[in-house]
Design goal:
heterodimer, A: alpha+beta, Glutamine Phosphoribosylpyrophosphate, subunit 1, domain 1, 5-stranded antiparallel beta sheet, 4 helices, about 35% strand, globular, B: alpha+beta
Chain lengths: ~200, ~200
Amino acid sequence: MECVFGLVGNGFTLIVADTLAVHSILVHKSNEDKIMILDSHKLLGASGESGDRVQFTEYIQKNVALYQFRNGIPLTTAAAANFTRGELATALRKSPYFVNILLAGYDKETGPSLYYIDYIATLHKIEKGAFGYGSYFSLSMMDRHYHSGMSVKEAIDLVDKCIMEIRSRLVVAPPNFVIKIVDKDGAREYAWRESIKDTIAPNTA
Amino acid sequence: MSIFEYNGSALIAMVGKNCFAIASDRRLGVQLQTIATDFQRIYKIHDKLYIGLSGLATDAQTLYQRLVFRHKLYQLREERDMKPETFASLVSAILYEKRFGPYFCQPVIAGLGDDDKPFICTMDSIGAKELAKDFVVAGTASESLYGACESMYKPDMEPEELFETISQALLSSVDRDCLSGWGGHVFVVTPTEVIERTLKGRMD
């Protein structure tokens, strides 16, 4: 099922997500990007009900941008996380969003950070976290190999270990993953890990 | 599994000689999976008033934000801090407002009232206050906590002895509960100082 996990390293935060868009037993798309770039220095990795995921994350992205337009300065990662939790909490007893979120960011004053936001709006600042069936494997791998202040190379090695574990041990393992990183230079896509590539069929007209 | 046991929690508050202690575990879980081992359940309202919130973590966070908001307004209007008894009534009223759609939390309130007399109380999720002279407990490990506190507690303990007692009661009870534990967080509050300590127990 949907796998999203993330960890904090030395001056950066990584988020990894699978790229499968699934409807019951059918795979609609195998290169769906589930990690949204919120602003220059924030990433939002989301998993859960697809409609809620897209609607809610876009709503958060637009509100974060609005704050920057109105006030001239961007939100800090902690503020964005608390805003997201507030929106989820308000909606919880009316019409809840079934989206689990990992929010990663880099602030000049406080450095890299990662926030865990449950679909029922539980907020906690963490060093490593994961959602979905893949969390049973990736959390254990991270518990064993993670230490604070990892370099990018060490962190990517750990991410690859987690992906390998998910692929080999999860019966409905997603084939492809996307890795995004945020550090002092901004939020960007780092790499893809694909075992199934979408190829365009040749035109047989 | 009950909604109160979704995240797991353990809280105690105990009265000593002109002081009180409030302690919590540190686990944040989602049913059987542990998410974090440094989750904070006890919040400071003002220097002599602490509230611990057990139960569903999201409601504990929402409730805490609402209570801090109300207390800050009170401070602006009254130009003083709220007394623990008043605060307990406020929490009870806020919880009963949601009588037919409650916050899934059980608060434990501890403070020093007039003349620095220690005050502790707990309430259920719809605001039924339970005042006590000795100790109050809450959380998934509450049954073990009642037993441990009843046997270890004695009245008029000094802060150091109170700290030892509350720590032993907390750690021995959470060891029998799979949903709470991963260490402890203890605040011992006297009229002159607050000592905050982290406990290391069985990390499992």
